[in-house]
């Protein structure tokens, strides 16, 4: 063990100071400069209300029981005449108590309808713990701070939702083209039916053009002023 000589502590301290002076600073100037957080930061939970069907799965699975949901049932009239009335759940309250939440992410994992998302937002500290229970409006506001999902790997299989959407669009396009073709054929048939009698009727190829006047007895018949004998003329002596 090296012996400590007088002033060795001071020398060590100065060495540390000198080393640190030459290093790049890592101090974050928060709140003047916002930190750059990783995209998967677990800041707070955002709610996309339109996707929530009030299935209660998230509230049941939450280990801390800090999700509060209230709802009521509404009757929806039948979509077509003669159909049955349906009932659906309508969300009245969706709140999360962030003083109890342990940010495990189970609620987000189990939601079958993609209604809950992690947001990197973290500036929601309160001086009163009771104010850490945030209601649906606030959860919805946080939804707009959720980053977009990362791009797919170029070699990845196409998501089945995209394939289904493309198939539906192609089917619609084919139906539209078939309807347009049918309409065009119908119009063409109507046009031909309207123009039919004038173009190919009896006036064009009837007896006037090739009838008895053209090739009858007046033109080449026995009415001869040249060599034929006319039965009504008197013979000359
Ligand atoms: S993250 Fe975990 S503790 Fe927090 S609300 Fe969701 S399930 Fe509950
Ligand atoms: S699991 Fe999803 S859909 Fe069901 S109540 Fe929770 S947020 Fe709504």
From TrEMBL:
Domain 4Fe-4S ferredoxin-type, first and last residues per copy: 43-72, 92-121
Biased composition (Low complexity): 220-237
Cofactor(s) it depends on: [4Fe-4S] cluster
Membrane topology term: Peripheral membrane protein
The record's free-text note on cofactor binding: Binds 2 [4Fe-4S] clusters per subunit.
Chief location bin: membrane
Binding site for [4Fe-4S] cluster 2: 62, 101, 104, 107
Binding site for [4Fe-4S] cluster 1: 52, 55, 58, 111
Compartments in which it is found: Cell membrane
Bias kind Basic and acidic residues: ranges: 177-191
Keywords: 4Fe-4S, Cell membrane, Iron, Iron-sulfur, Membrane, Metal-binding, NAD, Quinone, Repeat, Translocase, Ubiquinone
Catalysed reaction equations from the record: a quinone + NADH + 5 H(+)(in) = a quinol + NAD(+) + 4 H(+)(out)
PROSITE patterns in alphabetical order: 4FE4S_FER_1, 4FE4S_FER_2
EC number(s) stated in the UniProt entry for this protein: 7.1.1.-
UniProt keyword Glycoprotein present: no
Xref: InterPro entries: 4Fe4S_Fe-S-bd, 4Fe4S_Fe_S_CS, NADH_quinone_OxRdtase_chainI
Record-stated family: Belongs to the complex I 23 kDa subunit family.
Known partners and oligomeric status: NDH-1 is composed of 14 different subunits. Subunits NuoA, H, J, K, L, M, N constitute the membrane sector of the complex.
PANTHER family per record: NADH DEHYDROGENASE UBIQUINONE IRON-SULFUR PROTEIN 8, MITOCHONDRIAL (PTHR10849), NADH-QUINONE OXIDOREDUCTASE SUBUNIT I 2 (PTHR10849:SF24)
Name of the protein in question: NADH-quinone oxidoreductase subunit I
The gene coding this protein: nuoI
């Amino acid at each position: 063990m090296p012996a400590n000589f007088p002033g060795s502590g001071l020398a060590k301290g100065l060495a540390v100071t000198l080393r640190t002076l030459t290093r790049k600073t890592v101090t974050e100037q928060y709140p003047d400069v916002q930190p750059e957080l990783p995209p998967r930061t677990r800041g707070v939970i955002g709610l996309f209300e339109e996707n929530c069907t009030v299935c209660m799965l998230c509230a049941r699975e939450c280990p801390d029981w800090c999700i509060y949901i209230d709802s009521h049932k509404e009757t929806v009239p039948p979509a077509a005449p003669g159909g049955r009335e349906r009932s659906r759940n309508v969300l009245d309250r969706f709140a999360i108590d962030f003083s109890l939440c342990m940010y495990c992410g189970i609620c987000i994992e189990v939601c079958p309808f993609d209604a809950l998302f992690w947001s990197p937002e973290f500036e929601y500290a309160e001086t009163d713990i009771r104010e850490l229970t945030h209601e649906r409006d606030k959860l919805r506001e946080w939804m707009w701070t959720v980053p977009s999902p990362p791009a797919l790997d170029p070699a990845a299989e196409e998501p089945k939702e995209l394939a289904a959407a493309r198939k539906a669009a192609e089917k619609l396009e084919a139906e539209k083209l078939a309807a347009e073709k049918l309409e065009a054929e119908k119009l063409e048939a109507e046009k031909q039916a309207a123009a039919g009698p004038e173009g190919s009727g009896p006036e064009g190829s009837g007896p006037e053009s090739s009838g008895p006047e053209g090739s009858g007895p007046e033109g080449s018949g026995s009415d001869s002023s040249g060599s034929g004998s006319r039965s009504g003329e008197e013979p000359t002596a």
